[in-house]
Amino acid sequence: MRTARALVLLGCLALAACGAASSKGNSTGAGGSATGAAGSVGTGGTGGGLPMCQVDIVPIIPMSFDGLAANPTAKVRVLGSVTGPVPGTYEWQWTVTLADGSSVPVAPVAPSDPSLVEFPTTTTGTYTIAVELKGASCAGLRTIVVAKANAKVATFRFHVTPPSTASVPAQDIARQVTGGTPSGGNTLALDPGILVSFNVTRASDGSALPSYVRLTEANTGAVLETRTSGPLGNTMRVAQGTYRTLVVPDGDVAPATLPPRAAAEMAVGGIPLDDGAAIAGTVADAAGKPLAGATVVLRDGELVSTTGKTDATGAFHVRARAGTFGLTVVTPLAAGGLESTLDPTVGLVVDATAPTPSLAIKLQTSALVTGTVALSATDPASLGSAARVSIATPTAALANVATLTVGTGAARALAGDVRFSLHPAADGTVSTGGVPPGMYDVTVFPASASTSDGVTKKTLDLTAGNVASLPLPLAQKVMLTGKLLPAKTSSGVTIVAQDKGGLPVAAQGDAGPDGSFALAVSPSFLYLLRALPRADQPLARTSFPFVNVMNAAPPSVEYEMPPALLFAGRVVDPSLQGVSTALVQAFCIGPPPGCVDPAVPVAETITRSDGTFQLMLPDPDGTP
User: Fold this and answer.
1) pTM score, whole prediction
2) 297, 301, 410, 548 — which has fewest CB within 10 A?
């Protein structure tokens, strides 16, 4: 029937005699201009006071909206088919817009039939067709895609965070994007989520147990946090998904984890908790003297015990759930703390049905050593009061710094880490104070990032004993240079160099008119370069390969900026109302080189008052 009707329509169009029939009885009138709208006044219908109608936008030439291709002479002809009654007088108004909001000229096919129009499709992208019957409260909307031929397709994850005033949760929505095809009219419809109640109670008497609750979505890693209080706990809306739950009660009650559950399963039932298993112990130094002020915690992944703190007798107390735990004890040093750990794989077994034997933790380092570092700088301002010196054990932890004995069992060795920060004295010296013998990494952060002195690293060897003075002149910054291509459109792109290891070592600057950039960076670091175009540039955010900067400036390199592809749309709530001030972040999905880092947004923006937004995504057909 559908094919037969289309053939009849085509036959009628050849005779220019189907206007009245295709518009459901509306009379025809003069056509509008061909500069973006076409319209006329028509008469017909059954009078006023009628229920709302709608206009279906039907493809005529070609007969389907699928597989549309752009070319210099391509056109699409559509028919407005009215469903429902209309008043006696109204006016047809047509508009067609591209993804960026620019207008496409629309023209009536025949002056006598304003319901039949056509428009050119000379460029790839989405075309949003809107029609309104002025005076009839009747409208229609349709977005069609004119895709680039043989284009690549990529999937992006859109993470939408509504404002706190919205009654919908943050959630992820996946969308496919076709290369070389700007996309508009996209609707990101938010799910209402599921109202989940967190009622944490004491298992013994059912009384409320105020707690911190954290949900982690198993697939995306998204984290939601809340606190419970009062007899009814707390409620929050969560998006569809599967969540792990961590509950950390206030007071002397062991934290607990719940196995992954679907959001719908979490909507019912409370969380009753007992106090957990009680575990006691002592912390002493190498001579057996009790150590006050040490902290002790058991850990198995995200599940932890309560935190114990030793008193004047070295005694501590914690509570934990059943399981096999690692152990961490932090004991004070002169300038920081010694963190001694037991690996969970050879850890401490807690049995909820039997008492856990007492724990005895004993430091094994009988003689602490001291190292002094003498700093010097080209710019005296680099060693001002804001200068900071970080001292830490390297990747290989200190061995056998303490032992753990469980009941009458054999002692088990604990590995140790030392990490602390100091400010240099007025004479530029820094002393470690007493620390266990070993190798230490020293990192100096100048007081100001604007000086010529860079962040400087050096190794302090205390394996053989004290070091009276280790000279450490601050290294001079070197220039990291390059050029962005295409130069004409890359001017003004911000380049950020970040330390791959995660240290707060970074530099940034803007590309010049010819696309070139120069960043003063600290030597002896491996840098990740990120390019951040302005919102009005036709370029996408991207990351370039790591640059190893030694003591001399590396060679200048040319970097190709990937083209951007417009993705425009609207965020709506479950009632289809626009959500304003929502944060929309786009993340790539997949392995490199197409997706360098799926955890870093490739684009982000805030929705306008009507929920609309625009993002510039990496073009799947572009060059990474």
Assistant:
1) 0.75
2) 410
